[in-house]
């Protein structure tokens, strides 16, 4: 059993009450928990209950609280009486927060559910940070929030010990001020930072840009734009590179979806290969969708038509059955620290629903993941387009 699924149905007991929390979407096969020991440690520390070096309770009433990177809304839900502002890069995390707030009987104030692309608060008195998997995303977001922090701001980060490294602490120290860590409790650790107004960390180094290799087909030499947190921000990853060498050519008028688009390289290449195709870029990351749009504009010009959507895979509320001709997909197989095929399965089932009869799903993945088995079960067919010792490109047709 995945460690994150342990006691998935157990209420999250906090100093502010017990809450029944869920991820979005709920997967009955996985039952992954929507909170962990780091969330628990941070909240107990705030309430003065944690056994740490600075365990006195933090006064929250009347203070402007920002919660950065709250994965499924556990922190935002527990602290709802204090009206915190949540800042997240995850559309799924945002949907989970809405549901968890509603389930707890708290008001769901959309103005307080911000994304990483929204203008941050002007002033923050308490900044709570769930350390993200991406160090780049943490760097970019700390830069964005630094102007709102003042000498009296309480800054507390939290993560599992495997998520907090020397480089993590160095970012807090460089951008906000002196930083130390707590003792580890249940494999979780806190980051305690004291803002220094004299620091001048400079602007965020993000986004990054690079030129694609010259041997990858229609997108050769084009510029890729990567906002912080986007997969493989420094260079073209080898799986996408293999996919680019074997992409189908869309017909004029085809509606083509780059599903889980990341920086948009795959969809941009498809648009260059098939002029006249209608491209739609979809990802659950706000940073990724922003990257995809800038990559597409850099490759095809500022006025080239395309759609850019932050969504839960091929959401049926957005993609009607039979409305898509071609889906291109490089699915992830991690959800934070959990290794799971739930996201890939949701992408595949959504693609089948959205595709017209005769429409195609093209997938690249690690050979060992066995996606061909899932695609055959779902579509009734699956053909190997190309393969090497590490990756396969697969094609499934909706009959």
Automatic annotation (TrEMBL):
Location(s) in or outside the cell: Cytoplasm
Function: Specifically methylates the guanine in position 1835 (m2G1835) of 23S rRNA.
Protein EC: 2.1.1.174
Protein name: Ribosomal RNA large subunit methyltransferase G
SUPFAM superfamilies in alphabetical order: S-adenosyl-L-methionine-dependent methyltransferases
Presence of the UniProt keyword Lyase in the record: no
Organism encoding this protein: Streptomyces rubellomurinus (strain ATCC 31215)
InterPro entries given in the database record: DNA_methylase_N6_adenine_CS, RLMG, RlmG_N, RsmC/RlmG, SAM-dependent_MTases_sf, Small_mtfrase_dom
Catalyzed reaction equations: guanosine(1835) in 23S rRNA + S-adenosyl-L-methionine = N(2)-methylguanosine(1835) in 23S rRNA + S-adenosyl-L-homocysteine + H(+)
Family membership noted in the UniProt record: Belongs to the methyltransferase superfamily. RlmG family.
UniProt GO molecular function: 23S rRNA (guanine(1835)-N(2))-methyltransferase activity; nucleic acid binding
Gene it is expressed from: rlmG
Pfam families membership: MTS (PF05175), RLMG_N (PF26049)
Enzyme class: transferase
Entry keywords, A to Z: Cytoplasm, Methyltransferase, rRNA processing, S-adenosyl-L-methionine, Transferase
Gene3D superfamilies: Vaccinia Virus protein VP39
Coiled-coil residue spans: none
Main subcellular location of this protein, as a coarse class: cytoplasm
Entry GO terms, CC: cytoplasm
Superkingdom field: Bacteria
Methyltransferase keyword on record: yes
Alphabetical list of HAMAP family matching this protein: 23SrRNA_methyltr_G
All residue ranges annotated as the RlmG N-terminal domain in the record: 11-196
Ranges for domain Methyltransferase small: 223-395
